[in-house]
Amino acid sequence: MIYLDNAATSWPKPPSVAEAMTDFMDHIGANPGRAGHRLAVKAGQLVYLAREAVAEIFHAPDPLRIVFGYNITESLNLGLKGILNPGDHVITSSMEHNSMIRPLRELQKYGVELSIVKCDVEGRLSPSDVEAQIRSNTKLIAITHASNVVGTLIPIRDIGAICRKHDILMLVDTAQSAGSYPIDMQRDNIDLLGFTGHKSLCGPTGTGGLIIGERVDEKQMKPLIQGGTGSYSEHEEQPFFLPDAMESGTLNGVGLAGLIAGIEWIQKEGLDNIRHHDMMLTQQLINGLLQIPKCIVYGTHDARKQTSTVSFNIKGMASSEVGLRLDEEYDILCRIGLHCAPMAHKTIGTFPNGTVRFGISYFNTNDDIKRAIEAVAGLSQEIT
Amino acid sequence: MSEHQYTILLVYSSSYAVRAEKILRKEGIDTKMIPIPRHISSNCGVCVRIHTDDVNDALEVLDNSNLPLDGVYNLD
Ligand SMILES: Cc1ncc(COP(=O)(O)O)c(C=O)c1O
């Protein structure tokens, strides 16, 4: 079987991830940050280690400015709803995932003003187009680092510099880039960074978070939920300090144990090596698909300008049929359709039919890509 | 002072307790995370216990690291 759905969730994971999770269940298990017995202390220490691992890989200012959550969908909701108030203006792009655009559409109902900057058909965004949308009440630019449909990278560092010039904040969705492309919160001028654990960070599902940079005044931010934190229990009001102000309820200790192992594995392999591997296979895939007469490949066609996600269609065959037949006849698993990003498909001209998407990981090989290209060529030969 | 006299450092939360422990241990100060004694606070969390002999050093180190303290209590 060839797994090419890594843009949705990475698989397989490094073996150390499941080992760390089993070890947590067998030997730690307790509630992090609540009781004071030795297992609870160990669980609390592990959660702190997870904060340190995340802070290191993103160069976050402070491990305690990381608010853990269930996934990036929750984190983007926290960032957007926590920062934006009626009357504020926010700018986003036309390549966003629904986890960005839906909370923004919701906020619009309550009087938040929204501008959507159009990307070109390859999914590229021009920073000057973004800057042109800034108004006197613009508070936030909320943007993905890379498209989950075509992989095109967005120049976040330049957009972040524009934000600083105009004294506004930048929120970045790193779902598609974290763990496979270098991200540095300080150098890339990121104020709020959402991440999800189950993609290239190699962790399990149920892990993610929002990193709150130092330009953000957390006292002006609203939490999504309130509840138990294990701190200041005598007070009925939510604590004022991070992460407790935004992070209520028992954390996913077992998941965070896995996330630490995933991040440690990335550090050991080396992000540069991972990126190099992904680029080689991505270019191999793009070049191979471009050779197939009936195949349309979307995006930049340049692995240096994108992540390891490639979208294509076979002219005359629905993406759903391609996906099913790749699975049943060629043992290749991928994702088809709109990929939770209808606006991105409108931008690249593939709405409402969508595309077939291959998402490559460090565990894929040249041979996987060769066989995937042959499979697509085989299917396309049936079209007359 | 006997080395069996302890002092409790109250911090915001268990995350801050882990951080305080890391900072103090790096300076060679012996620490243990324990449940907050009920007579000090009704908080359900943990605090950092150190030897009373180390209090001055500990407070200086934590202050230099900008780690906020909620209180310092000697245990009898
Ligand atoms: C760009 C982008 N943003 C957000 C998400 C949502 O991720 P999650 O389902 O982990 O919240 C995804 C993945 O599906 C994505 O690709």
Question: Care to describe what's here?
Answer:
The complex is a heterodimer of chains A (384) and B (76). Chain A is 38% helix and 15% strand. The two termini of chain A are 29 Å apart. Chain A folds into two domains: 2-10 and 270-380, Alpha-Beta Complex (Aspartate Aminotransferase, domain 1); 15-268, Aspartate Aminotransferase, domain 2 (3-Layer(aba) Sandwich). The radius of gyration of chain A is 21 Å and the shape is globular. In chain A, helix 6 links the parallel strand 5 and strand 6. In chain A, strands 2-8-7-6-5-3-4 form a seven-stranded mixed beta sheet, sandwiched between helices. A four-stranded antiparallel beta sheet of chain A has the order 9-10-13-12, with helices on one face. With 384 residues, chain A is of the alpha/beta class. Chain B is an alpha+beta fold and 76 residues long. Chain B has a single domain, classed as Alpha-Beta Plaits (2-Layer Sandwich), CATH 3.30.70. Chain B is built from two helices and four strands. Chain B has a four-stranded antiparallel beta sheet, covered by helices on one side. Chain B starts with 5 loop residues before the first strand and ends with a strand. The model of chain B has no long low-confidence stretch (mean pLDDT 91). The interface between A and B is medium-sized, with 25 and 21 residues. Pyridoxal-5'-phosphate (PLP) binds at residues 71-73, 97, 99, 144, 148, 173, 175-176, 196, 208, 340 of chain A. Chain B: It holds the Pfam family Se_S_carrier. Chain B: InterPro entries: Se/S_carrier-like (IPR021778).
